[in-house]
Every structure is written in structure tokens, then in C-alpha cells.
Amino acid sequence: xxxxxxxxKLGVAVYNWKxxxxxxxxxxxxxxxxxxxxxxxxxRGFSTTNRSAWGIFPxxxxxxxPCTVKGSGATAIxxxxxxxxxxxxxxxxRDWARLWKRLYVERETYRFSAxxxxxxxxxxxxxxxxxxxxxxxxxxALRLKLVAKLDWGNRxxxxxxxxxxxx
Length: 167
Known about the structure:
By secondary structure, the protein is of the alpha+beta class. It is built from three helices and seven strands; from the N terminus they run E-E-E-E-E-E-E-H-H-H. The strands form two sheets. The protein has a five-stranded antiparallel sheet, with no helix packed on it. A two-stranded antiparallel ribbon has the order 6-7. It starts with a strand and ends in an 11-residue tail after the last helix.
């Protein structure tokens, strides 16, 4: 039996899911969904990028994130309260993925490996920030390290300048 959530919840997909059940909502990693109802290990809701895409999905493919709710009742809309650094890392990784692919196609092995290493470090750091299990000192140190990695990548991955890729 589907039970309506007391207030809208937001989840971010942590796994790809094809939506291969009746009324399934396909999800890609990083996609945000507003959850309106729950039933056991399943959720019903819609994609925040395409509000007409409704459906069900396993609760295990999303991570519930803190959010603010605007409006009330059926018109309530939830918005993520994410850390700006976490959001920036996600955006940068999407951009760098194009560079990474180009390096692979051009067989730039060393540069490909350097970008891959930094991308893995950013993903790992982002995961640690999202988990919220670090002390304040650890969080501060990690944030500084991640900002330095972003700075390196932004200087090194600008068009025509990726020849300086050293980690």
C-alpha cells in the first residue's frame, strides 16, 4: 500500500536504473527525484528536470538529501540544500568527462591517466563530504584539498592548455 510522505523528499540517484518494471521511472546517476509516496522498498515520484516523468523506482537507487520545501499540499516543490562545493564538483566532472574522452580517443595515455586520477580523487572527496561522517577539521582539510584539485583541473583543462597535465 502506497503511503504519502509527510513532506516532499528529494533523492539523488546513486545508481543508474533502467525503469524496467511497469510504471518504472528510469534514473541516471546524479538525477534528482521528488519522492511523494513510499511502499516498502519502493518510491513513487517524478524527476525534477522533467516533471512530467513520473513513476516508481527502488528506494536503494537514491540517496535522500536535505531539502527546503516551497509551497504546500499537492503544489509543494522541494529544492536541494546541497553544499556548493559538492555541486561544483559534479558540474566540473561532467565537463572534464568530455576532455577525458578526447584524451582517450587521441591516445594521450599519460594525460588520460592524470585526469582520471584527479577525477577519482574528486569523486571520493565528494562522497566523503556527502556522507557527513568527517570531523570539522577533516572536512576543512578535505575541502581545501578538493578546491586545489578543482583549481588544477580548471587551469590544466582549458582548451589548448591541457598539455600541462601534471599531478
